Amino acid sequence: MKPLVSIVGALTLAVGLAACSSSSSPVTAPTSSASAADSATPVTITMWHGQSDDAAKAIAALAAQYMKENPNVTINVQPGASNTDDLKQKIAAGFVAGDYPDISYAYGSWAGVLAQSGKVLDITSQIQDPAVGWNDFPAAARETATVDGKTFAMPAVVGNLAVIYNKALFDAAGVAYPTNDWTWDDFRTIAKKLTNVDKKIFGTAYSVAGNEDTTWHMWPLLWQNGGSILSDDQQTATFNSDAGVKALEYLRSLAVDDKSMYLDQTGEKYGALFLDGRIGMQISGPWNLYDLQQRKASYGVVQLPGTNGDHQTISGSDIWALFDHGDVNRAKAAFDFTNWLTQPAQDAQWNIALGNMPLRASEKDTAAFAQFVKDYPGGEIFLANFANAKQPRPTVAGYDEMSQNVGKAIAAVLQGQGSAKDALDQAAAKSADALTS
Amino acid sequence: MSLLRAVEIEEPTSALPKKKGWLPFSGWHILLMPIALLFAVPLVQMVLTSFMTDAEINSFPPKFIPTSINLGGYQQFLTESLAPRWMLNTVVVATISVIAHLILCSTAGYGYARLKFRGRNFGFFAIVATIMIPTQLLMIPTYVMFSKLGVVNTLAAAFIPWLTSAFGIFLMRQFFLSLPKELEEAGMIDGLTSFGVFRRIVLPLAKPALATLAVFTLLNSWNDLVWPLIAISNQDNFTIQVGLTTFQGTRRTQWSALMAGNVIATLPLIVGFLIAQKQFVATMTFSGLKG
Amino acid sequence: MSVSVDVVSSPLTVDPSDRKRQRRTQKRRANVTGWTFVGVSTFMVIGLSIFPAAWALLISRRKWNLLSPPKDIGWKNYGTMVHDPEVWAALRHTLFFTALFVPISILLGMLIAVALNQRIKLVGFYRTAIFIPFVASAAATGILAGFVFEPNYGSANDLLRRLGLPTQPFLESPTQAMMVIVLIALWGQVGFTVVVYLAALQDIPKDVVEAAIVDGANRRQVFRYVTIPELAPVTVFTAVWQTITALQLFDLVYTTTRGGPIGSTTTLVYYVYQVAFQQSRFGYGAAVSYGLFALTMIVTLFMIWYSRRTKIEAF
Q: So what's the pLDDT on residue C185?
């Protein structure tokens, strides 16, 4: 009779090897063909939305409505994670466990790495259907949802960066409101004028948490200066060009020389401080409108300052990523539901109701949008600003790692450590591995 | 070697004669009072701030004492988050952890202390070796492992690591080793099996050690942050620590609510400490090895 | 004529194979009993520690973001680790923290314990006040510390202001942040060392102290030649324990500074967290964890060897 200890040991090893081996063998997800789908059979799909509070309620309500209209479909609605940032990790865990949803909310910056997993659903042919209205979406959203020519997601939330400013602080300092043709020099001058050290008021703010929030705020400046993030083949970093250095040095001048820029260590404070009336101008997106309305703040929205008349901005497009389970019915249900979600009638309840931008250009003629503009002043400026979003963020698999490297470089320079050129060069060198493999 | 006993530190035992100094009180107070205040004041401030309004807190110069008792912070924490649910979750996790620890560590501790069986030394050595392994090393594979087992995102993910521990087994074993063998031998002569001896003779004597083990497990499972943070993503299944940290993320400047959350999260343990001071202190002193 | 009574009631002539079989059965029963007692616990502890640790070694030889299948790259991660300036920075920060935290917590603990062992009033209050922060969780401590050290509204700067001293940025300064974290950690952990030393002090046999006094020793000499040597084993054990814990600092960094400002409080474990859970480089994260494990082992073994060399009987 074998000693019990070796049985215990063997059991442990067996569990381990089973677990190990299934994670090490390359898994290629089975692909679904659209032809064999049956719209009568009952089908259950799971959706992770990564939202909380009102947004979570809106999604749940919409899902309930869809289920009523399509009784054979059951949608299992889950948050998936406590906040959207953590959703990527949960999706990853789900892939490993073989237990992942059919639909998941995802940041646009994850598009590359999700597509690379091989587990995403290919809906390139489905979106050709004119009923979908694919071209109604902003170009940046369409590009984010498509990696290597294959579309795998529907747009979920779109926004862009503009400047939201506190009218009361402007009035108190006797500064005129910004106009559409303002420049970065104007921005700097205004920031200096609004800064009041005694009252602990800053002209503007910037997150130095070192993550994507830090990084993507610099991209519009890079682009306006004529630079690009990556080379054409997307294998080399080019953000450390003169254009990039100029952009970072500009930000540095506000932070270090003028001290008119509040540096937020966590990235979670500057929004709250703006609402508290301690920041004069923040470069941010439409997701602030909801809170601004709740607080009845006195604010204005204007497009980003320009460089030589170029007011280029960056558009963030979050997506509903679709995942493949090798089941044509599930694939059809997942696509149909997300497509339905993005149609104007539903989008009004999801995006517009929550103070986000409408997904479709055609929505600007709807009554819902007219009401939106009344409820959230400045919304129409964000919508018009989409015309300024000319380039998408790259959807390469190594984006997250590169983003952290750049974010840390920006954070260090803004806090007075190192020169812009050295910091960006280092970040580019560090990111080389992430971009090429 | 009695490693474990409820330490009676009521009576100072310094054998040194009381020194007649030139102060009306002992010179030690000059050292102890400022230190004690430094330690206690932040907690006192935490409680006081939880009763202030955000406007009061953000005023300059800062106020220390609230002008009136304002429950807005508590209201905000309890209604704008799933705090009551989180507290319930934490109580469930702590209770399961403590009960499991008591059962599993006492049996394993006794087995390793008194019973002779094949592989005993190997098993115990392996357990002691695990104490050296940093928990962060295990975080990634444990996360993957739990994903495969499907327990990620459930409350089980929070208490499974706390069902038993090398520390607890070590603790109980040390205690059982210190018991005089005669009692157990008498039991065996009377015809009791090992289980009988364990249940009827040894266990009743182990109450102080078990109490200490319970306190150690309660403290650690209640305060565990990082692992549940990584493993649980569903808000409904958060423990109070994870919930509090997540709550902080969206309300960075709303101090009254944050302090209220702090008080709610910490109060049970503080009350427990005040009631069961001896047991808490014994948790620490077991490690006062002298060889 | 006395007859020796055979306690074991067996026939005087026993078949040796029978006796062997009896012993085997007894042994088997003992094994089953033993493993019934320890089996579940042992399986769980090993399953949740040694097994994942071994698996982590496998993962460390891969490039894996969990979303796509892993890619085997041999020991490359370890090479990357050695050349990664952020790893060395994290190591510096961790060692800085450890070098400050461990000695201070021991000295302070010892000093306060001696003080609390004196026959003075208010001992109960002091003991409670110094120990209570120990039960506060990292989450609560982090939030509280963020409040106390807040440059504008916090009580720390308020105190400095009242004393006429210049206000400090504390957790928002790359040079001060780690030191502030040392202070916060001490606040929460000194209670532990105080209690350990208190118990040890009370274990010192009174007659040794009295003998020294009779021999003419004053308070300081008693402390130096009697108390401290008696406390040596406890000191070594506590030092090792605190060092291992200090090298793994994570919770407090996560709840206060998130590794900033400018990464000045990024410890090795926090770096692993960033690399693995934020950049999704799980293979590299596992490799850095192993690096930390190796470091912890080396430091611990060194401390044990050193204590053995100086003949302190702690291990």
A: 96
Residue with tokens 């310094």: B14
In chain A, how many domains are there? 2
The Cα-based distances of A144 to A158, A321, A350 in angstroms read: 11, 11, 20
Beta bridge partners of A310: A307
- DSSP states of B23-68 as a string? SSS-THHHHHHHHHHHHHHHHHHHHHHHTS-HHHHTSSSPPSS-SS
Q: How many CB pairs under 8 A join A and C?
A: 98
**Tens of pLDDT, residues A128-153:** 999 999 999 988 899 999 998 999 99
For the record, the structure tokens of B229 come out as 């943070």
Whether B83 contacts chain C with CB within 8 A: no
Average pLDDT over residues A209-224: 94
Do both C262 and C296 map to the same domain?
Answer: yes
Q: How many CA atoms lie within 13 A of C209 on its CB side?
A: 19
CA distance B57 to chain A (A): 13
Q: Do C117 and C254 lie in a common domain?
A: yes
Show residues of chain A in contact with C263, CB under 8 Å. 210, 408, 412
Q: Looking at residue C84, what DSSP letter applies?
A: -
**What pLDDT digit, counting tens, does each position of B52-102 carry?**
888 878 776 667 788 888 888 899 899 888 899 999 999 999 999 999 999
Q: Which residue of A has its CA nearest to C68?
A: A117
Kindly state whether residues C237 and C175 are assigned to the same domain.
Answer: yes
Does a structural domain hold residue C11? Answer: no
Shared-domain flag, residues A209 and A228: yes
Helix axes C282-309, C50-60, angle to 10 degrees: 120
Specify the number of domains making up chain C: 2
Q: How many CB atoms lie within 10 A of CB A110?
A: 24
Same domain? For A139 and A268 the reply is no
Give the side-chain half-sphere CA count within 13 A for B71: 4
Print the domain residue range for A404: 162-312+398-436
pLDDT, tens digit, 9 for 90 and up, residues B250-290: 777 788 899 999 999 999 999 988 888 777 676 666 544 33
Q: Are strands A43-48 and A103-106 parallel, antiparallel or unpaired?
A: parallel
Task: Give the model confidence (pLDDT) of A149-168 as tens digits.
Answer: 999 999 999 999 999 999 99
User: Are residues A284 and A384 both part of a single domain?
Assistant: no
Same domain, A240 and A299: yes
Domain extent at residue C36: 16-72
Q: Which of C50, C72, C94 is the last residue of a domain?
A: C72
Taking alpha carbons only, the member of A369, A337, A359 closest to residue A65 is A337
C172 and C303 share a domain?
yes
pLDDT of residue A184: 96
Percent of chain A that is helix, strand, coil (3-state, to 5)? 50, 15, 35
Residues C82 and C161 placed together within one structural domain of the fold: yes
Among A1, A89, A117, select the one facing C68 at the smallest CB separation.
A117
Which of A2, A6, A12, A261 should we substitute to test contact with C (largest number of C Cβ atoms within 10 Å)?
Answer: A12
Chain B residues with CB under 8 Å of A273 CB are 253
Let me know whether A171 and A295 are in one domain: yes
Residue spans of the domains in chain B: they are: 83-252
CB B51, CB B66: distance < 8 Å: yes
Chain B residues whose CB is inside 8 A of the C147 CB are: 46, 49, 255, 258-259
Q: Are both C236 and C107 inside the same structural domain?
A: yes
Q: Do B58 and A268 touch (CB under 8 A)?
A: no
Residue A171 lies in a domain: yes
CB atoms within 10 A of CB B265: 27
What is d(CA A343, CA A334) in angstroms, rounded to the nearest whole number? 15
Task: Look up the CATH number of domain B83-252.
Answer: 1.10.3720.10
Indicate the residue of A92, A200, A209 with minimum beta-carbon distance to C65: A92
Same domain membership, residue A303 and residue A193 = yes
Which pTM was predicted?
Answer: 0.83
